[in-house]
Design a protein that fits this description.
This protein is of the alpha+beta class. Helices cover 47% and strands 20% of the residues. The protein is built from 25 helices and 27 strands. It has a 7-stranded mixed beta sheet, with helices on both faces. Strand 19 and strand 20 form a beta hairpin.
């Protein structure tokens, strides 16, 4: 449980606005959400209560008092649900994707023998299991595996409402009870037609749907766990007695910490001593390591490079950047609308109506002089044909078929809500680095002094000679920029020479000897410190930097001092097929937007390569990692249904805040956990395909629900008027299931857009 009280810094009194996050166990549908919200709002002092079915939690704003928290918990319990701490660690569970499938598997094993004879009737094979065998198979499914539906239905009855649990429990109990009645009334040796298979199959299929929902809900806790895993458990504290290891939780602001090469920075702070390169890609999404000198800021969770450094702590606990990102993910997930199931909404009215019709049928036939047994048979026929077999199949069957065929094409749909919403998307927001671009620096320009107009691909002997020197100086280095120079030399087939007396200068560059000459390669800032005159290449350096490129230089030691030989510009490249993928989305009438932390010039330059129109608002530049979610929310507030596509940890809040989050499969685990859809190949062409399969699946869901209700609308009056006996009613119910399943299986013919 997490309490957020606003404290006045002047008088330290509690503000009248307090917020309590409360976990709630036992909710199953939209009517449960409404019931819990109603119970919470009745507590004195509560101003607002919002219950989230997906995260099984509630956020309550109230006027704090000594008993408010206890009253809120009591209200949840009195409503029939289990209050628990919102920040309590989730219960340990098997990491296998089949965790929790055992009850469903048992239900399938017990139900299958009951269904086989019914399927045989379609092929003219008329046979039936003995009644006692049907009883032994169906009863455990009905009353042991289906016990949860009786509990949920009982809570709904106490609250004078209806839900899917009540519909399942009434319908399946009617089928089971009718079977028991017919079995008991049958003459010795007579093979009565029973309905045990109906109750068993419905319970099993609904359990399958609940299991699929539970798998999606587990992803919310995994995203938070992955973020917490970025924080090391131990920090190296410089104390009075030297360096000691202490838990990160005991680190205080202004402490001095040592961070060794390859370790994560435990908290935010400032670099006191040393030089290093820091990998911040897990927080910023940017691929290039950032040089850090004394006085620069450090972010907890980022990875130290090659230098042993000393830092001063500036923020700990909930005030660190990583902790704020974790809160953003939590808040974005809590703000998601509850999963609205059409079946649950309709069942709130459908169940009472069916009960009334069944009662009217019973009384009508009995009071008109017919035998009471006949009246009961007609009333049960109403309940049997109203049994939600097709309703239970309508949504899960379509979702299973849709997600199955999508997975074959590299689209992993983990959240049914995302699948249902994706077809409404009219704006797709793309993170730039690693999503629209390769996320790896490349040598985009190589300018040789004296040949400033020579393009990097020109067949120039001097150009190749300078590139050979630059690549040789960096041979063996694992720095991303060094690898980019080596790759450019390899593309031109140049032979490299190992340098002598190589010396690396952290955060600046390196120098060494080649063929009797000494060279250095590094940042423009380093060359400026050494007094190197950039001369005629100065204007080109400024132009390249204005386009967002990272610029380095190659210089030679001469008797007159250092002489500039060449400039190197590094930048990212658009992913192959990115332009075509964006065009395909526009052809569907969808607006595409690129979001980036780069400066405006660099972002616009990349947008031009991608065919995006900055003048039409399709480029959002200079956006800080923590502000991406806010930009997504702003688009949603403008009336748009927004999809976010990203791959980095810094994208996780925006992925959670969007109506539909799509994570690239080559990105971070946190991004994939926060998103409802993962594109396993990291190919953005799959974005349009994901939206298309969503549209097809939702169409099948609507068609299935139409047919499921059509059977009931047509069948219930016929059963009430005596035109359908329970046998025909059961057959109609079976036909509705066959039609719904057959319609859903048509999705298997879907092909990804090319």
């Amino acid at each position: 449980m997490m309490e957020r009280f606003r404290i006045d810094a002047m008088n330290t009194t509690i503000s009248p606005n307090a917020t309590l996050d409360l976990g709630i166990g036992g909710m199953t549908c939209a009517s449960c959400v409404a019931r819990v919200e109603k119970a919470l709002k009745k507590v004195p002092g509560v101003r607002e209560a919002s219950v989230n079915l997906a995260t099984e939690s509630a956020r309550v704003r109230f006027e704090p008092s000594e008993q408010t928290e206890a009253q809120l918990r009591r209200a949840v319990r009195d409503a029939g649900y289990e209050p628990r701490a919102a920040d309590a660690p989730p219960a340990e569970h098997d990491a296998s994707p089949w965790a929790g499938f055992a009850p469903v598997a048992l239900g399938l094993a017990l139900s299958t023998p009951l269904v086989v004879p019914m399927l045989g009737d379609l092929f003219g094979w008329h046979w039936m299991l003995p009644a006692w065998v049907q009883f032994l198979l169906a009863t455990p499914v009905q009353f042991i595996l289906g016990a949860r539906f009786y509990v949920g239905g009982w809570h709904a009855l106490k609250a004078r409402s209806g839900n899917m649990d009540l519909l399942v429990s009434i319908g399946t109990t009617a089928g089971w009870a009718l079977s028991m009645w017919l079995w008991w009334r049958a003459e010795p040796g007579e093979m009565a037609h029973l309905y045990f298979e109906a109750s068993a199959v419905v319970v099993t299929l609904v359990l399958l749907g609940k299991w699929l929902e539970a798998r999606a809900k587990r992803q919310t806790t995994e995203a938070i766990r992955s973020l917490h895993a970025l924080r090391p458990d131990v920090a190296h504290l410089i104390g009075p007695d030297g360096e000691v290891d202490v838990p990160v939780a005991e680190v205080l602001v202004a402490d001095r910490l040592v961070v060794r090469p390859g370790e994560r920075f435990p908290v935010d702070g400032t670099l006191l001593e040393g030089h290093t390169q820091v990998d911040e890609s897990m927080l910023t999404g940017e691929p290039l390591p950032v040089a850090k000198d004394a006085g620069t800021r450090l972010t907890g969770g980022s990875i130290n490079g090659e230098g042993r450094v000393l830092m001063r702590v500036g923020a700990v606990g909930s005030e660190t950047v990583l902790a704020r990102i974790i809160r953003l993910v939590e808040d974005a997930q809590a703000a998601k609308a509850p999963i609205q199931r059409l079946v649950d909404q309709v069942s709130a009215v459908f169940v009472p109506v069916v009960l009334v019709i069944a009662l009217v049928t019973l009384l009508g036939w009995w009071l008109n002089g017919h035998p009471f047994e006949m009246a009961v048979i007609h009333a049960v026929a109403v309940l049997v044909i109203a049994c939600p077999c097709a309703l239970g199949l309508a949504t899960p069957a379509a979702i299973m078929a849709g997600t199955g065929v999508a997975a074959k094409h590299g689209i992993l749909i983990k959240d049914a809500q995302a699948l249902e919403l994706a077809h409404k998307v009219d704006v797709v927001v793309f993170d730039k680095t690693g999503t629209l671009t390769l996320g790896q620096p490349r040598l985009t320009a190589f300018r040789v002094a004296g040949e400033s107009d020579e393009p990097a691909t020109a067949a120039s002997a001097q150009h190749d000679a300078m590139l050979t020197v630059a690549a040789s100086l960096q041979s063996g280095s694992e720095h991303p920029l060094a690898r980019a120079v080596q790759a450019a030399a390899a593309e031109r087939g140049l032979s490299l020479t190992a340098p002598r007396n190589l010396r690396a200068v952290p955060g600046r560059g390196s120098e060494g000897a080649l063929g009797g000459e000494r060279y250095l390669i590094g940042s423009l800032r380093w060359l400026a410190e050494l007094g190197v005159d950039t001369g005629p290449l100065a204007s080109q350096a400024e132009a390249l930097q204005g386009q967002g490129a990272t610029v380095s230089a190659l210089a030679q030691h001469t008797a007159q001092g250092l002489r500039l030989l060449a400039l190197m510009a590094f930048g990212d490249e658009a992913k192959p097929g990115a332009v075509q993928a964006l065009e395909r989305l526009r052809a569907r009438g969808i607006k595409t937007v690129m979001i980036s932390g780069d400066n405006r010039g660099a972002a616009v330059a990349m947008a031009l390569k991608l065919g995006l129109r900055a003048q039409d608002g399709e480029v959002l530049a200079e956006v800080l990692p923590g502000d991406k979610a806010a930009m997504v929310m702003k688009l949603k507030e403008g009336g748009h249904t927004v999809a976010m596509v990203g791959d980095g940890i810094n994208d996780a809040p925006a992925l959670a805040a969007a109506d539909v989050g799509l994570a690239m499969g080559n990105g971070t685990d946190v991004a994939m956990h926060a998103a409802g859809i993962t594109l396993m190949r990291g190919d953005i062409a799959l974005v349009a395909a994901a939206l298309d399969i969503s549209s097809r699946t939702v169409a099948k869901i609507r068609q299935n629900l139409f047919w499921a209700f059509a059977y009931n609308v047509a069948g219930i009056p016929l059963a009430a008027l005596g035109y359908l006996n329970p046998v025909v009613a059961g057959a109609a119910m079976a036909m509705s299931s066959v039609s719904v399943m057959s319609n859903a299986l048509l999705l298997k013919r879907w092909k990804a857009l090319q």
